[in-house]
Amino acid sequence: IALVRRKAVVAGVVTAPALALTWRSTRPGEGAQRRAFGDAWKPARVRERPQDATALVSHSISDEDAERLAGRNGCRLWQGMD
User: Fold this and answer.
1) How many structural domains does the chain have?
2) What is the sign of the dihedral through the CA atoms of 57, 75, 71 and 15?
3) 52 with 37, same domain?
């Protein structure tokens, strides 16, 4: 879920109940946070982008669109996902 103001995202939250995890971002520049259900919020960390990243794209788009989308985001490879 995201809050958008003047076409800019100002807050967002994603939860994964099966993993008992929630991620959020509030104000631009403050970074994101994550927490396990019932625990305190902690800064979220991301890993370095792999050299040969693979884009996961919807099966509902054409191969040409999938390849273009993957390339636009710096991925040489793509894989269709349901």
Assistant:
1) 2
2) positive
3) no
8-25: string of b/e by CB count within 10 Å (b at 16+)?
eeeeeeeeeeeeeebebb
Q: Would the pLDDT of 38 be above 90?
A: yes
pLDDT tens digits for range 45-64? 888 878 888 888 888 999 99
Could you list the beta-strand ranges (E) of 26-76.
Answer: 32-36, 42-43, 54-58
- On whether the CB atoms of residues 68 and 62 are closer than 8 A, the answer is no
Examine the pLDDT at 27 and tell me if it is beyond 80: no
**Is the same domain home to 36 and 55?**
no
Please give the residue range of the domain that contains residue 21: 2-43
Q: What is the CA radius of gyration of the chain?
A: 16
Residue ranges in 1-82 assigned as alpha helix (H): 63-72
pTM comes to 0.58
